[in-house]
Design a protein that fits this description.
- The protein has about 110 residues and is mainly beta.
- It has one domain: Immunoglobulins (Immunoglobulin-like, Sandwich), CATH 2.60.40.10.
- The protein is about 0% helix and about 55% strand.
- A five-stranded mixed β-sheet has the order 2-8-7-4-5, with no helix packed on it.
- Strand 7 and strand 8 form a beta hairpin.
- It is elongated and about 45 Å long.
- The termini are far apart.
């Protein structure tokens, strides 16, 4: 038995570009696992260091096939904003962390 539960985002590749509206993400993990999801937005501001904002904190439950989904919508979808997603899948005494970075479309 593996020491970790699988955790993978299947809808977006790391460093993918997203539009300014609601972004829907789909993933796979162990059937019935609970996934803790956090999304932070790091906005690029000229002459200043990036401003970080918590966009989403939620839990998602994987179905019997291990599929789960969630969406987020930034309050200020500034071009070039970096979205840092952290997901931790929990099943019994197993947990797996996965990270994904998405970027707001320019112009």
């Amino acid at each position: 038995m593996p020491a970790t539960a699988p955790l993978q985002i299947t809808s977006h590749a790391n460093n993918a570009i997203v539009d300014g509206g609601t972004t829907l993400l789909r993933g796979r993990t162990a059937p019935g696992a609970v996934v803790d999801i956090t999304v932070h937005a790091v906005a690029p501001l000229a002459g200043l260091f990036g401003v970080t904002q918590n966009v989403l904190t939620q839990k998602a439950q994987a179905d019997a096939n291990g599929s789960f989904s969630f969406s987020f919508a930034p309050q200020l979808p500034l071009p070039g904003t970096r979205y840092e997603l952290t997901m931790i899948s929990h099943k019994a005494d197993l947990s797996t962390e996965s990270r994904l970075v998405l970027f707001q479309k320019q112009g």
